[in-house]
Amino acid sequence: MLLGDGMERQILHVDVNNAFLSWTALDMLKNGESLDIRTIPAVIGGDEKLRHGIVLAKSMSAKSAGIVTGEPLYQARKKCPTLRVFSSNFKVYREYSNQLYELLCEYTDKIERFSIDECFMDMTEFLRGRKLIDIAYEIGRRVREELGFTVNVGVAHNKLLAKMASDFSKPDKVHTLFREEIPEKMWKLPVGDLFMLGKKTVPKLQLLGIKTIGDLARYDYRWICYRFGKFGKMIWEYANGIDTSEVVSEKEAPKGIGNSVTLPRDYESLEELNSVLLALSEQVSFRLRKQKMFAETVNVQLRTSDFRDFSHQKKLNHATCSTSEIYQVAKGILEEMYRQQKIRLIGLRVDHLTDKPIQQVSLFDEKTVNEKQEKLDKAVDALKQKFGYESVMRASGMETSRMMKRKDE
DNA sequence: TCTGGGGTCCTAGGACCC
DNA sequence: TCTGGGGTCCTAGGACCC
After folding, report:
1. Which residues touch strand B (CB under 7 A)?
2. Which of A255, A290, A295, A378 is most buried by a 10 A CB count?
């Protein structure tokens, strides 16, 4: 920084205000609804009959009633009896997210989609003689006028500070967080407001007398590193506004692909669980093949009725994308780990993805079976692509599909 | 009808090897 | 004749994010 401001990176973080709720509101208005649900106590929530009943997003007035994201809908209703609940629609969200992304792409090539409703922009080489903060205000105005929803824009010299800044007062605001502003704007905040400090770490820090981000920033660096390892180094640096990570514009290949479902009631037999596992295998392997990737590891996750999570995994000696193979492995894992518990959730995920199959050494007849299976997978995929995921489905798959909300294309 | 679903990264312990 | 020890792979679990 002593080299002068010319060396500083120019970073923006754009964060959609109440994204799912705002986008649902716009979609409803577009479809002839006259009520703007952004103006009433309202939330986006899952289906309580399917035990998916949590708050995914809230309006400003719902927030004023003390409703927080992630809490059960029944609890939210207790806080606000007049609360209206609307269901999510990820297809719609994807469209609005894309509209935002396209608008932001007019400003820079270096742009990172951090989530469906957040982007980082590296403006360092794209200022074209303008001031960063002016661009931030212009983006806020244009999104509001052209897209119909609002964003917060954080302005800073690195990603962490830009993200912290966009989280200051909302909605429809621009905030800066430059180095000299850190003590005034960030150090006074409770330590739990720091990015990456969640509900498990905050109490541990409080035991050390660390209450604010400033307390953490001024705490002995070596002690925090000793106590919290790599994670400690990171949060101490964050508290001091240090973050050298780059804005990454190319979408990286996924490291793993998984689907899970909370069951409409607790399941208590392998047979019931297996039928869900088959549907999950179809879904996961379909997504895997769409990515043209192969997986080396299969992982089965269970959540018991008393909310205890556990998982088992198996590494294969090759990489696969076959529905039946993934299912067979997953079934074996499930049988090995299941101990007659009441199961609330079951999940399947594949990890250690590669873009080429490590060829299985197999006997001729085995290979024939594999090739047959591969052909079947391809034929089914083609139909799913053309007529929709549910066009080709086993009865058990249909049942499971009803429990699940398909999120992406 | 209390508590979603999709990810990433890190850690710790055991097996195994030299 | 107890007590090495570093490195890698695999697994289970946990923390965090949106």
Report:
1. A 46, 48-49, 51-54, 56, 69-70, 72-74, 229-231, 254-262, 287, 306-307, 345, 347, 349, 403-405, 407
2. A295
Its sign, for the CA torsion A59, A62, A66, A68, is: negative
Average pLDDT for residues A96-103, to the nearest whole number?
98
Q: What is the pLDDT of residue A122?
A: 98
The distance (Å) linking the CA of A249 with the C1' of B18 is 43
Residue with tokens 């006074």: A188
Is A312 (CB) below 7 Å from strand C? yes
Q: Please indicate whether the domains covering A187-239 and A256-407 agree at the CATH topology level.
A: no
Domain boundaries, chain A: 187-239, 256-407
* Least confident range of A98-102, A122-126, A364-368: A364-368
* Nucleotide of closest approach to A408 (CA, C1'): B6
* Cα(A43)–Cα(A37) distance, integer angstroms: 9
Q: Please give the average per-residue pLDDT across A186-210, as a whole number.
A: 97
State the average pLDDT over residues A176-181. Answer: 98
- Where does the pLDDT of residue A164 fall: very low under 50, low under 70, confident under 90, or very high at 90 and above? very high
CATH, domain A256-407, list 3.30.830.10, 3.30.1490.100, 3.30.70.3490, 1.20.1640.10: 3.30.1490.100
CA angle A314, A315, A316 (to 5 degrees): 115
What pLDDT, in 10s, does the model give residues A240-281? Answer: 999 999 999 999 999 999 999 999 999 999 999 999 999 999
- The catalytic residue positions of A are 118
CA of A310 to C1' of C13 (A): 8
Q: Are A213 and A192 in contact (CB under 8 A)?
A: no
Closest nt by CA–C1' to A252:
B8
* Rg of chain A over all Cα atoms, to the nearest angstrom: 24
Superfamily of segment(s) A187-239:
5' to 3' exonuclease, C-terminal subdomain (1.10.150.20)
Per-residue pLDDT, averaged over A86-114, amounts to 97
